[in-house]
Structures are given as structure tokens and as C-alpha cells.
Amino acid sequence: MADWTADLATRTRPRPMLEKMGSSERLDAGSEGSGRSAMRERNYRQYCGLASALDAVGDRWTLLVVRELLLGPRRYVELQADLPGIGTNLLAARLKKLRELGLVRRAGHAPHSYDLTAEGERMRDSVLALSRFGMGLLTDPTADVVVRPHWGFLAVAAMADADRLPELSEAYEFRVDDEVFHLAVRDGHARPARGPAPAPALVATTDATTFVQIGAGLIDPMDAVAANRLTLTGDPAAAVRCSVVLGLTKAPQA
């Protein structure tokens, strides 16, 4: 993560947008709600890679926009629907800033669709590392919070480490509410993606809240099965291997 932040500081310093951030505060055209009142965006004015990265992507909602693009292109209306609470003016401002930074681009296959650039993809490990950290801070949800299936999948996928079973080659499918995802573990890599897995060794069916709670360690997978909140279909040994890859249980002793 340190390499990414230092490199981003070097790459983005000459950009016109960041040159405008030379003062300790500046007015941003985007704002929450109707956009009638301007939002202040702060510059840390510290000669530090982390501070420079936070100047670029540390304002509210920016990393959540990046999160929404980690599983592929999204249309503007999809982004707005899956970022409840963000105003359309603020979303437009965040996308504009990310495009100016070279982290996001317009996706050519659909109108008003956005995707991460190659430079934006370099943020993946950093964003997933923050997600892993945040999973350890979660408690049981209150009535006023929202959850989306792909948030749970990304959070759980962030926990995946193929090095825990380096010889493993199989895929796991997750059916979370009305969405389907899979995790392919091959060649020492765990690759998350939308859609069904070809010939999955295990299919897990659950709801988004339970999925996040399992990943956060708030509920044991077997307890979720017993409570009819999780259904596992496939090779029982694959369920153990999947739990090992996700760090939910230790690898069995040889």
C-alpha cells in the first residue's frame, strides 16, 4: 500500500486539478443533497505519500465509488442506486475527479457507464485491505443501515488468500439474495467475479446481512446453516477448503 500511495503522489502532482488544491481549502463544485451549498475539500499540505493519496481519494464517498467499480463497469444509475445517500451532484463530482486523476474512465459498451483504468486497478489491493480492516470493526447491524449483496461478496473476497492452500484449483459460487458471484482459486490466486462459476465445488446461498456477518466473524458458518440462514451445496470437503481460503478456519493438519 505504501508503494501505491507514494507512486500516486508522484504521478498526480503535475495534474492541473491537484495544482488547484495548493491552498489548505478549496471549494468543490459537488455537494451533497441539492448541490446549492458548496462542500469544502481539504488539502493536508503534507509532503507525504499517504497525505497526498488522501488529498486525491480521501474525501467522503470517493473510495466507495471505487468499491462499486471493483467488480466491473457500472452505469451511473447503478452507482447512484448502490450508494444510498449520495446526491447526484456529488456523485458526478466524484466521478469527474476520479476521471481527472486517471483512475476511472467512461466504459465504451454502454452510455453513462464507468470503469476503472489500469491505474485505478492498482488501488484494488489497498481498497480490499481497508475492507479487511473494516470487517474487524463491524458489529451486528442496526435497523437504519443498508447492505448490498456485492458489498458482502467484496468484503469476504478481500479475506481470501490462496496461499493458505497453494495447490488448490477450484471455484466457489455465492448466491446472495438476488445476485450471484464466484471466487476462482487457481495458480496461487483468488479471483472474485460476478456471475456463476463453471462447475463450482461449492455453492453457498444466503442473504447479504448473513454473508457480511459470517465474514466479520459475528456468526459461525455452521451456526448459520443450523439457523437456516446459509445453505451449502456440493462437496463437504470443499466447504472446509473454502473456509480455509477465506480465513474462517485453519487448514487441517496433514
From TrEMBL:
Stretches with biased composition (Basic and acidic residues): 16-29
Chain segments annotated as transmembrane: none
Keywords annotated in UniProt: DNA-binding, Transcription, Transcription regulation
Domain HTH hxlR-type span(s) in chain numbering: 48-142
A Pfam family: HxlR
Record keyword Transcription present: yes
Region annotation Disordered: where it falls in the sequence: 1-37
Keyword field contains Transcription regulation: yes
Gene3D superfamilies per the UniProt record, alphabetical: SCP2 sterol-binding domain, Winged helix-like DNA-binding domain superfamily/Winged helix DNA-binding domain
Name of the protein this chain belongs to: Helix-turn-helix domain-containing protein
Species this chain originates from: Lentzea roselyniae
